[in-house]
């Protein structure tokens, strides 16, 4: 601490209580990250440790009982602060997450048996764990036209839950602008302005970053599930660095 009793940036480590368990974390740590350090897995779609937080999916809701924030808040958007008491199991937060899952499933196709993401799909996991099993919406579903994005990726836009992971990875990490978000609200479309091969040499990573199967590996489509394949360590030959990879 300084002479004035204030914490310095180097020494200050906020303490937060999550589900009756206290943890001390580094400044700037999000509540969702603090919970994970305690072994508490808060549902998430748009949040990714490499991409940061945008608060788009709303499924990481928790209840803040004490501290500078009160009520239901998005755990990926709030940094841990001293005095925070958080509950992930509070009924209001649990019900909120359940309703969010139902909203996300409103237009989602029931094609899990034929989807290459089936069995290791984050949306599938969160839907089952969240207790959503009966579709109450009987209206007409929103649908999109798919695009040709090249020989490596299959595009299935009807599976999209608008988490923005693909656009953030492609533009912020890959540094390319030919794929992104278009239109607005519940008609937001993720793709290119028109059909065409994606320009980024890292575009194949979209099949991994997407949590729902909007982008899947085209060469292996319908050939087998991910757990059916054998994996071997290898070296990337795309440039002279020779980075380690798995094939």
Automatic annotation (TrEMBL):
Ranges in coiled-coil conformation: none
Primary location recorded for the protein, binned into one broad class: membrane
Co-factor requirement: [4Fe-4S] cluster; [2Fe-2S] cluster
InterPro entries: 2Fe-2S_ferredoxin-like_sf, 2Fe-2S_ferredoxin-type, NADH_UbQ_OxRdtase_75kDa_su_CS, NADH_UbQ_OxRdtase_ferredoxin, NADH_UbQ_OxRdtase_Gsu_4Fe4S-bd, Prok_molybdopt-oxidoreductase
Keyword Iron: yes
Start and end residues of each 4Fe-4S His(Cys)3-ligated-type domain: 92-131
Pfam families xref list: Fer2_4, Fer4_Nqo3, NADH-G_4Fe-4S_3
GO cellular component entries: membrane
Record's keyword terms, sorted: 2Fe-2S, 4Fe-4S, Iron, Iron-sulfur, Membrane, Metal-binding, NAD, Quinone, Translocase
Domain called 2Fe-2S ferredoxin-type: residue spans: 14-92
Compartment(s) of residence: Membrane
GO terms of biological process kind: ATP synthesis coupled electron transport
Cited PROSITE patterns: 2FE2S_FER_2 (PS51085), 4FE4S_HC3 (PS51839), COMPLEX1_75K_1 (PS00641), COMPLEX1_75K_2 (PS00642)
GO molecular function: 2 iron, 2 sulfur cluster binding; 4 iron, 4 sulfur cluster binding; metal ion binding; NADH dehydrogenase (ubiquinone) activity; NADH dehydrogenase activity; quinone binding
Family: Belongs to the complex I 75 kDa subunit family.
Name this protein carries in UniProt: 4Fe-4S His(Cys)3-ligated-type domain-containing protein
């Amino acid at each position: 601490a300084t002479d004035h009793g204030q914490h310095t940036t180097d020494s200050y480590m906020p303490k937060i209580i999550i589900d009756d368990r206290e943890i001390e974390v580094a400044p700037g740590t999000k509540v969702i990250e603090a919970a994970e350090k305690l072994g508490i897995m808060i549902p998430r779609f748009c949040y990714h440790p490499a991409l940061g937080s945008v608060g788009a999916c709303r499924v990481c809701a928790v209840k803040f009982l004490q501290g500078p924030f009160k009520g239901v808040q998005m755990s990926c958007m709030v940094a841990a602060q001293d005095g925070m008491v958080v509950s992930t199991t509070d009924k209001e937060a649990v019900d909120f997450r359940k309703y969010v899952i139902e909203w996300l499933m409103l237009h989602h196709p029931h094609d899990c048996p034929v989807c290459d993401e089936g069995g290791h799909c984050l949306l599938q996991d969160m839907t089952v764990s969240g207790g959503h099993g009966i579709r109450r919406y009987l209206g007409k579903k929103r649908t999109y036209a798919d695009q040709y994005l090249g020989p490596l990726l299959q595009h299935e836009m009807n599976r999209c839950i608008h988490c923005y992971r693909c656009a953030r990875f492609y533009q912020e990490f890959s540094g390319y602008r030919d794929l992104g978000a278009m239109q607005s609200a519940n008609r937001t479309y993720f793709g290119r302005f028109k059909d065409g091969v994606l320009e980024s040499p890292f575009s194949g990573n979209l099949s991994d970053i997407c949590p729902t199967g909007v982008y899947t590996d085209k060469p292996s489509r319908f050939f087998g599930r991910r757990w059916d394949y054998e994996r071997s360590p290898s070296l990337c030959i795309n440039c002279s660095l020779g980075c380690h990879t798995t094939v």
